[in-house]
Amino acid sequence: MRVLIVEDDFYCRTLLHDILRPLGQCDIAVNGEEAVFAFKRAQEELRPYDLICLDLVLPEMDGHQALREIRALEREAGRDSVREVKVIVTTMLDDSKETHDAFFLGGAASYLVKPIREEALLEELRNLGLLPAE
């Protein structure tokens, strides 16, 4: 599994990396612009990400905008919704508008509120078919 962790907070970034590192290759971006750049580069190298853990509140470009740009890059490359990268939004915002925007406008697959618990993240990975069921 290839993972992109998009998180500006050092603690949260480290936690996600520690959980996901045993499961595959993890790359890190600290803002939305870096996330879009990393995604585009991975796509050009024909080594796309299987999973993106994406914070919504980021410097430079927020997570909503980054997700819209990532989905646009996928459409340009001819990837349909079945083959698009799975995105788990990880944020402090426990807000119905944010949830709505992440799922319906951005195409997120899941939404986890921080602090992220390892068990909850692993369960989401299983639900998304990225890990085998227990």
Q: What do you see in this structure?
A:
The structure is a single chain. It contains 5 helices and 5 strands. Helix 2 runs parallel beside helix 3. Strand 3 (51-54), helix 3 (63-76) and strand 4 (86-91) form a beta-alpha-beta unit. The mean pLDDT is 91. 32% of the residues are buried. Strands 2-1-3-4-5 form a 5-stranded parallel sheet, sandwiched between helices. The chain is globular. It has one domain (2-118): 3-Layer(aba) Sandwich (Rossmann fold), CATH 3.40.50.2300. Helix content is 43%, strand content 18%. It has 134 residues and is α/β, with parallel strands linked by helices.
Core attributes:
single chain; 134 residues; alpha/beta; Rossmann fold; five-stranded parallel sheet; 5 helices
What structural class should be given to the helix and strand makeup? alpha/beta
* Average predicted confidence as pLDDT: 91
Residue share in β-strands: 15-25%
Low-confidence stretches: none
> DSSP helix count?
5
Radius of gyration: 13 Å
Distance between the termini: 18 Å
What string, H for helix and E for strand, traces the elements in order?
EHEHEHEHEH
CATH homologous superfamily identity: Response regulator
Find the count of extended strands (DSSP E, 2+ residues). Answer: 5
- Overall geometry comes to globular
Proportion of residues in helical segments: 40-55%
Which CATH class is shown? Alpha Beta
For the record, the CATH architecture stands as 3-Layer(aba) Sandwich
User: What fold name goes in the CATH topology slot?
Assistant: Rossmann fold
Strand order of the largest sheet: 2-1-3-4-5
User: How many separate domains?
Assistant: 1
